Amino acid sequence: MNDLKTDSTDWATANKRNTTRLGYWTFTWVATMAVAAFGPKLIWSYATVPTIIAVLVNLGVGFGMIVANRRYLRGLDELHQKIFLDAGALTLGVVLVCGLSYELLNEVRLISFEPQFSHLAILMSVTFLIGMISGHRRYQ
To answer: pTM here?
Structure first.
């Protein structure tokens, strides 16, 4: 019985550590993305070397975030992995279908503006959040 408590405590501690680590990597990636996006205009007057460094740092931190996300996902139990996978599948489908249709609207001149990736990033975030929330509610 004591072993069961120890195992669940170890799992909870590891899960908390993985979640915290993923949060730090995500925050750092967002910060480096902001530096890479706004630094050239606001800080170093479009100088090439700092811009290249900022983009490379952003890519490196982004790959670190991917590794942290993988570690987080592998540390979850089977139910939470299923919820995550279902939310990811929903997100992939929605963004693929909506993204291609969004691009098509421009190609057939039903919209006068250029489609922006930021719109798809927002759609991805909202869809994944909805998928995660509905998955948690489904299995409560």
So the answer is: 0.80
Angstrom distance (rounded) from CA 133 to CA 137:
6
Task: Give the amino acid at 120.
Answer: L
Report the distance separating Cα 14 and Cα 5, nearest Å: 14
Helices marked H in 1-140 — which ranges? Answer: 2-42, 48-75, 78-107, 117-138
Domain that holds residue 119: 77-140
User: In terms of domains, do 2 and 67 share one?
Assistant: yes
Look up residue 90 and give its two tokens: 């929903």
* CA gap 110, 113 in Å, rounded: 9
Considering its fold, how many domains does the chain have in total?
A: 2
Q: Are 128 and 91 in contact (CB under 8 A)?
A: yes
- Asked if 66 and 26 sit in the same domain, the reply is yes
67-126 tens-digit pLDDT = 999 999 999 999 999 999 999 999 999 999 999 999 999 899 899 888 899 999 999 999
